[in-house]
Amino acid sequence: MSIALYYTPGSAPCRLVLLVAAALNIQLDHNLMNLREGDQFKPDFLKLNPQHTVPTIVDGDFTLWESRAIARYLVNKYGEDSGLYPTDPKQRALVDQRLDFDLGTLYSRYSQYYYPQLFLGAKADEGLLKKLEEALVFLNTFLEGSTYAAGDKLTLADLGLVTTVSTIETAGISLDSYPNVQKWFELVKTTTPGYKEAMEPGLQAFKNLISQLKAKTEL
After folding, report:
1. Cα–Cα distance between 121 and 210 in angstroms, integer?
2. Is this model's pTM higher than 0.85 or not?
3. Could you identify which of 37, 60, 126, 159 might form a hypothetical disulfide with 19, taking C-beta atoms 3.0 to 4.6 angstroms apart as the criterion?
4. 2, 11, 146, 211: the active-site residue
5. What DSSP assignment string belongs to 125-171?
6. Which distant-in-sequence residues (6+ apart) come within 8 Å of 189 by Cβ?
7. What CATH code would you report for 89-214?
8. Phi and psi (nearest 5°) for 95?
C-alpha cells in the first residue's frame, strides 16, 4: 500500500518529502493541494491535519506533518540501512543540527526576506537580505573541507538543505559569493537519487508562481 502525500510541488518542504521517497524507492499516492484555492481548509483535510499545512502524509492509520519529521519517519521505518540518517549518535546529531539550521535559520531567513516581496508586493529589506547572506556564509563555512553537509556521505541534511538552496537560487538570489555552497549544490544535484524528477517540476512551478505574482504587482 502506498503512502498518501498531500502537497504542493512549489513548496520546498514538500520537495524534501519527494526527495526522501525517491531515495528510498517509496511509492506515494500524490494528492495535489491548491493552497490559493483553500484546499487546506476543507473539512476532510482538517480532520487529517488541524494545522492545515503541507506536506502531510497518511501511512495506513498514521498521519504526520512537518517535512523534517516526515523525512525522519520515512527513513526510520523504510530505510534504516540507507545511510541517510546515521545511527551513530554523533553523526546523527550532526545531521539533526544541519536540519535544524535549515529550518530555523537558512529557510527562515530566506522566507522572511523574500516572501513579503513575492506575496505582499513589499520592497526588498536590505537588513533581512544581510541576515540571509549571513546564513549562507554559515553554510559555506560548514561545507569547508566537507564533501556533504554532514560528512562524506549523502544524508537527510543534504536533502533538506538542497530544497532550500535550490529555492533561493530559483528566486534569483546569487550563490556566487559562496563557492563551497555552489560546489556542494552541484554534487548533491548529481548524486541524489531521483533528484530531477522530484525537484524540477516543483522548481518550475515556483518559477511560474514568481512570474505570475510579479506580473500582477507590475500592473
Report:
1. 11
2. yes
3. 159
4. 11
5. -HHHHHHHHHHHHHHHHHTTT-SBTTBSS--HHHHHHHHHHHHHHHT
6. 162, 195
7. 1.20.1050.10
8. -60, -45
Judged against a pLDDT cut of 90, whether residue 56 lies above it is answered with: yes
Of 211, 140, 134, nearest to 179 by C-alpha is: 140
Q: Given strand 28-32, what is the order of strands in its sheet? A: 28-32, 3-7, 56-59, 62-65
Quick check: 163 pLDDT over 70? yes
Cis amide prior to 9 (ω within 30 degrees): no
Does the active-site annotation cover 67?
no
- What letter does residue 38 receive in the DSSP assignment? T
Give the CA angle between residues 9, 92, 199 to the nearest 5°: 15
- For residue 74, count other CB atoms closer than 10 A to its CB: 24
CATH of 3-82, one of 3.50.50.60, 3.40.30.10, 3.60.120.10, 3.40.50.1390: 3.40.30.10
Question: What one-character DSSP code corresponds to residue 54?
Answer: S
Q: What DSSP designation does 35 have?
A: G
